[in-house]
């Protein structure tokens, strides 16, 4: 019978037909199979095998069975020769692989899994890399006739990964011979299904013993030859002529029903192990590289044979040279599978990238729309920037800069005192109850440790012309200011420009003070009329007194001094920061004030403090609106709200009260405060008392407006409005002092709150001139014994002046009320 011999290279031809790999362990087991097969030839030839295929051939002549037995004997002998040759070749390749240490296989292999019926393999046994391994089905226990000596084991079966077709079961020629001689019992269980569906999930093919064959699993002789040819192409046995036949189709194989398997518990556990291996992905669907886990598994097993190096050192046999092209084609197939896997990765990455870009676009779109909307809203209100400085100011937006600002901790338990200046010769018989403004300034300078900020109309703390002795208090304050630099205290002065006299500021600048002139006339058409001190951002003073020696000894002033009140002092420092930012040459008003200058208190959100232990709600106001930062309450609006809030009385002490524009042409009627007072006295029944100064600089037009208020007292209106004129007495020498001898106070007290400001009550002071006010509300606060609210102190101070000999009631019939 002609025998077709194939080398290991012939496996490549089979792999091109069906994209699978087979790996066979040839050590030990193959030799044992051949030897046992030779020993059992004489005994196994005479025993028939009861299978389904032979039952269908019972009608055939007996000579076909005899001819089949003769061919089997010849085939087994030839198999022994071929397997010895293959075993020698494997051993040589293993030796060369261990010497070179090179692994060329791109498909990782695992150690052979043990199964029921396996013979122990040698330690040097290594799987071939021609095909991935798959788990075999454990051999079922076989029952044998008592007169038969069984020395042969069934050859291993090969499971092939499912690639879209089903392949007929593979049987070796030895198994066929054993079947013909009756070596297998009819009680052996059959393999349930040898289709590819069972092994489709396994990425590696493994060799394991086949279960005993049941009758009927070999349909005919062509099927037997087909199985033998399949094993021969895998390098197990040389096939017969029938090995070149085409494999059985799916329909032929599936047409033969498979009987149920009868398995032992050991078989079940082996099949579970096989199923775990089957769950692994096929190699063409995974990355064609050896993972760390596989490398760890390989380290415990023997090295793989290096086919490339072995082929270069050992020439191929003549019969395998014709298969060289098929081997390259096989490698090309695997490379194509690797390229396909890489392309799938690239497409997956591109899809993820596209999803990521879509998500980024969905986020960027609303953000872009918000940004464009904000820029459009800003340009609608402020227009395009006309210069680089204006652009810089516009970029310093409140809501952008506010993210980086953090509120500093501050103190709310404050000590507050009303302070005043009493002109020489005034109230000589009754000393003042309240501390002097000069003493309060000196006290604040004594406590200064880091910084002193002063906003002022002008600086004339010394009388450099006449050397009047009453300037002593002013000189003391000036000397304390000069010593701040030597104590390491920073002095900053924001003063109105242009200055009529700059001697004091120039000398202070020579000692280290920073002086910045604020030309508010060029910006708003007004002046800096503010009188504000901030010390260490903890203490502050606010009131009517200018930085003038006369304000400390020749002018009646009222102010408020607060210590250890950093919450309110920090807010006052921001008002000073506004003046500082618009000072210097070529200054301009920003279209939008930065967040660092935003108000920390307002009429809507006042600070909750304790003044001398009494709870209070306090906030600062400023004028004009052009230099009021974000959130700052307007000074005029604050005054009007205090008047509207009164329930019982409104007491006002102010140098000037004029419902006209005082410093603009043409003169405009400005009835804002006047109308509020008329409404309070005539419609709400509030008692209104207005104390106005009379001195040589009083506007003559002010008094007719004041007399018009008195007309409201006549029936039937009978409005509760009263007006008095306050005069500071002067000697002949005192009359020579310029801008002195006047009640310069600017405060208002009601039954609910107290307001202390720095502005005279005419239009320009609220619309063009810089000024500051403070409102203290302690209504409803619990007052313990020995405590007093600021509102009650201010009420006492006003009533003292109102009832004094220096205040005279205004008559409607008077023509020359305040002669110059």
Provide an overview of this structure.
- The protein is of the alpha/beta class and 820 residues long.
- It folds into three domains: 10-336, no CATH class; 370-396, no CATH class; 401-809, Endonuclease Chain A (Endonuclease, Chain A).
- It has a 17-stranded mixed sheet that branches. A two-stranded antiparallel ribbon has the order 1-2. The chain has a two-stranded parallel sheet with strand order 5-10.
- A hairpin with a 3-residue loop joins β8 (532-535) and β9.
- α16 packs parallel to α17 (472-482).
- The longest helix is centred in the middle third of the chain and has 59 residues, at 324-382.
- The N and C termini lie far apart (152 Å).
- The relative contact order is 0.08.
- Pfam families: PLDc_3.
- This is Phospholipase D family, member 7.
- It comes from Oryzias melastigma (Marine medaka).
- Residues 76-103 form a coiled coil.
CATH class of the largest domain: Alpha Beta
Strand percentage: 5-15%
Number of self-contained structural domains: 3
**How can the largest sheet be summarized?**
17 strands, mixed
- In whole angstroms, how far apart are the ends? 152 Å
User: What's the tally of helices?
Assistant: 27
Model regions low in confidence, pLDDT < 50 over at least 5 residues: 1-53, 102-262, 283-322
CATH architecture designation of the largest domain: 2-Layer Sandwich
Helix content: 25-40%
Instruction: Return the structural class.
Output: alpha/beta
Radius of gyration: 56 Å
Under CATH, the topology of the largest domain is which? Endonuclease, Chain A
Instruction: Count the E strands.
Output: 21
Determine the CATH superfamily of the largest domain.
Endonuclease Chain A
Keywords: Coiled coil
Region (Disordered): 1-72, 115-152, 207-325
Protein name: Phospholipase D family, member 7
Biased composition (Basic and acidic residues): 53-72, 141-150
